[in-house]
Design brief:
Blueprint (H helix, E strand, L loop, with lengths): L9 E5 L4 H12 L3 E6 L2 H13 L4 E5 L5 H15 L4 E4 L14 H20 L2 H7 L2 E5 L12 H21 L5 E7 L2 E2 L1 H9 L2 H9 L7 E2 H12 L10 E4 L18
Bound molecules: nicotinamide-adenine-dinucleotide (NAD).
């Protein structure tokens, strides 16, 4: 095992410039991690950095696109050469792509798979050597679209099912070598991504998707971040290959809010 330059544990969060990735970076910094903030959106990273450093947290901004594998390898090597350790990786970067097989352009299909699946693969490939060094942990953000289908989301659903499969294989391949890999599957979370999806959808969609959640509301990004931080921590030392639904019960079964019991 290498000598660690930082006494604090070190985490990398992709997609750290917005939504779930930002909330995860904030959560991990609050738990004492030094956090590398990786995102293609430099302004987003800077905003996350401001929030964390204002409360005394330590970060390293890393502007990078997870599909740019050459640059990703270079920036991660430069970062880990400095940090000399990497304990935890949260792969949150992702994009929404709407459409069914007939309406999707081939370029949109490829882009969904490139960012959402190959981006996680690239992140894993270039961080696993460091995680293996310290017995670290990896968490990817898939979606409830990684465990069941959704009308009009073919490329997104296919990409998120693939992320679940990838993480299951990482759990089998690297669990024996001390690295735990888990995947979280949130339903709608109140982030800029969800805002964009609902802005592009019919006005009934927001009410429909909220009505199928037994808890009766969408998740906050912090609620997802807390689960990710838990899975990355020693508290979750026996979790590996877990597909963790964070969906207020919406994938538990068929549900109609209007027939839910109101008795106390
Ligand atoms: P968001 O759009 O708020 O944030 C995503 C971040 O990823 C952005 O900062 C963006 O710049 C970054 N990103 C996108 N493509 C990138 C790339 N190629 N390289 C580097 N960075 C890139 O979205 P969010 O809601 O926080 O989503 C985070 C993850 O959670 C995604 O994987 C998404 O699919 C998943 N998810 C979101 C929801 C939801 O309702 N918001 C539900 C389930 C799963």
């Amino acid at each position: 095992m290498k000598r660690a330059r930082y006494s604090a544990p070190v985490a990398l969060v992709t997609g750290a410039g917005s939504g779930i990735g930002r909330a995860t970076a904030i959560e991990l910094a609050g738990r004492g991690y030094f956090v590398a903030l990786l995102d293609r959106d430099e302004r987003g990273i800077a905003e996350t950095e401001l929030v964390i450093t204002a409360t005394g947290g330590e970060v390293e901004p890393i502007p990078c696109d997870v599909t740019d594998v050459a640059r990703l390898a270079t920036v991660l090597k430069a970062f880990t050469d400095k940090s000399e350790r990497l304990d935890a990786v949260a792969a949150c970067a992702g994009i929404e792509v709407l459409g069914d097989v007939l309406t999707l352009e081939e370029t949109e299909w490829k882009r969904a798979l490139d960012v959402n699946v190959t981006g996680v693969f690239n992140t894993a490939k270039h961080t696993l050597p460091y995680l293996l060094d310290v017995g670290g942990a990896f968490v990817a953000v898939a979606s409830d679209a990684g465990v069941f289908g959704a009308q009009g989301y073919s490329a997104y659903v296919a990409s998120k099912h693939a992320v679940v499969g990838l993480i299951r294989c990482m759990a089998l391949d690297f669990g024996p070598r001390g690295v735990r890999s888990n995947v979280v599957c949130p339903s709608f979370v109140e982030t800029p991504m969800a805002d964009r999806i609902f802005a592009a959808s019919s006005s009934e969609d927001y009410d429909f998707y909220q009505a199928i959640v037994p808890l009766g509301r969408f998740a906050q990004a912090r609620e997802v971040a807390q689960v990710i931080a838990h899975l990355l921590s020693a508290e979750a030392s026996y979790t590996n290959g877990l597909v963790y639904n964070i969906d207020g019960g919406s994938t538990a079964g068929y549900f109609r809010a209007e027939t839910a019991s109101s008795s106390k």
